[in-house]
Amino acid sequence: MGPNYSKPPAPTPQAFKEPPPPGWKESEPKDDVIRGKWWEVFNDPELNGLEEQVAISNQNIAQSEALFRQSRALIRITRAGLFPSVTVGASASDSRGSGSLGGRGAPSVNNTLAFPTIDFSWEADVWGSVRRSIEANTASAQASFATLENVRLTVQAEVATDYFQLRGLDQEKILLDTTTVAYQKALDLTNQRHDQGIASGADVAQAETQLEQTKSQSIDLDVTRSTLEHAIAVLIGKPPSEFTLERKPISAQPPEVPIALPSELLERRPDVAAAERQMAAANAQIGVARASYYPQIGLSAATGLQAGSLVNLFTWPSRLWSIGPSAVETVFDAGKRKATNDQVEAAYDATVAAYRLSVLGAFEDVEDNLSTLRVLTNEAAQQDQVVRAAQRSLDLALAQYQGGITAYLQVITSQSAALSAEVAQVVLRTRRMTSSVALVKALGGGWTNANLPAATQLAYTP
User: How far is 423 from 81, CA to CA, in rounded Å?
Assistant: First the structure.
């Protein structure tokens, strides 16, 4: 009973609006598709090691995996409804009649022994209710598997994002520490000039202020770095107190992520696959609801031995048996079945809307990250020129100050501009790395619908 499932259409553009960043090209179908360990495109051995620990120790993944196993077991529970139920038992009873009833004499005493008794019952799945339930639970289990893979991908992306943000802070700290050394030399020079009567006390105070501010800025980075380090520890299943990452600058470069066609994106997103499988499960539930309009047809049988004493229990006359079909139809339920049918149809419509929304969200994620990477790539090239210009300005300001042509305020201004330009350069590189991670995640991280377990795989104990 009920409609056979057919995946409804979803809005799918012919191409992405945002072009890939300069130098990138759109991949051909099935060409250069990221597969498996997608994080290896960043060529960072330390990141590779962290990602390998995620699947083993992350508790969010462990929870999702347990829920998937639970959904598999539910298929087997439902599938048992296709087969008969057989019970075996034994019983013994004594009964005594009332002495106030049945006339004169002592009340009768009855002893009954039954062993073994075998009861057989089977409800024929004439209208397909059980089969539709199996279909619904199978689709739900596939959705649970896709959800597990989406959780895995999300955690892997969080590890990579936190890792690159942490390495960006390490790079920024190296820059600030190097700048601190340069500012210390500038302060020493200013003190010498002050001792010689060339520089004023104001120049010394300005140089000192610049140095101490930079030291403070460098120290402040440790707050965010510690938070990121703790987050990575939890993601790989370790207590923060037992996990430490040595300070290192970003060694990887933003990779050229191959961009698949929009039509392929729907096959590579586990969250979209989960939404589509939930839609299939809701469709099957319509058949379950419609089957309730028809009678339940069953067959029952029983056999065994029954006697009043143990001596006679195992004799041929003590045998008993019964067999017969049954049919039960509900003739009045105050509109319960109609309401149930309306409820499951509305639930299906809700899953269709959720599926289409997940498709739109998938395209939005890709467009957002393509746009971000394109802009950041152009901005990074421009920022390189800013850094070079700021350094030239600082070199000129220092030369002019040492020659007595300009005041130390000009040096301070140039130093601040050069440091800000270099910090912005590091931040841009970090953002490009994290945006690359986000793009890979938006593209599904190499996952495809082919990874979904088939119904035959789910129906039996692994």
Answer: 66
The Cα 52–Cα 73 span in angstroms is 28
d(CA 286, CA 15): 36
Burial annotation 295-306 (CB, 10 A radius, 16+ → b, else e) = ebbbebeeebbe
Residue 118, domain member (yes or no):
no
Tell me which residue range forms the domain holding 431: 38-84+131-295+336-458
Residue 96 lies in a domain: no
User: Among the listed ranges 132-146, 210-224, 324-338, which one has the minimum average pLDDT value?
Assistant: 324-338
AA identity, residue 401:
Y
| Chain CA centroid to CA 455, Å | 22
Q: Which of 425, 104, 106 is nearest to 249 (CA)?
A: 425
Q: Half-sphere exposure of 124 toward its Cβ, with a 13 Å CA cutoff? A: 12
Q: Which of 17-26, 76-85, 101-110 is the least confident region?
A: 101-110
Q: How confident is the model at residue 30 (pLDDT cuts 50, 70, 90)?
A: very low
pLDDT, residue 11, reads: 81
In angstroms, what CA-CA distances link 443 with 153, 165, 372? 11, 21, 15
Classify the phi-psi angles of 373: left when phi > 0, otherwise alpha if psi is within -120 to 50, otherwise beta: alpha
Alpha carbon of 158 to those of 58, 254, 294: distances in Å?
Answer: 12, 17, 51
Q: Which tens digit of pLDDT belongs to each residue from 193-203? A: 788 777 778 87
CA–CA separation, 162 vs 438, rounded Å?
12
Q: What is the DSSP letter of 20?
A: P
CATH at 212 = 1.20.1600.10
> Tell me: the pLDDT tens digits for 306-340?
766 666 666 667 677 788 888 888 888 888 889 98
Residue 256 domain-assigned?
Answer: yes
CA–CA dist 409, 17 (Å, integer):
48
**Burial class of residue 436 in the structure, from the number of CB atoms within 10 Å of its CB (0-12 exposed, 13-18 middle, 19+ buried):** buried
Residue 308 within a domain: no
CB half-sphere exposure, 167, CA atoms < 13 A: 22
pLDDT digits (tens, 9 = 90+) for 67-89: 988 988 888 888 888 888 888 87
Q: How many structural domains does the chain have?
A: 1
Half-sphere exposure of 180 (CA within 13 A, CB side): 14
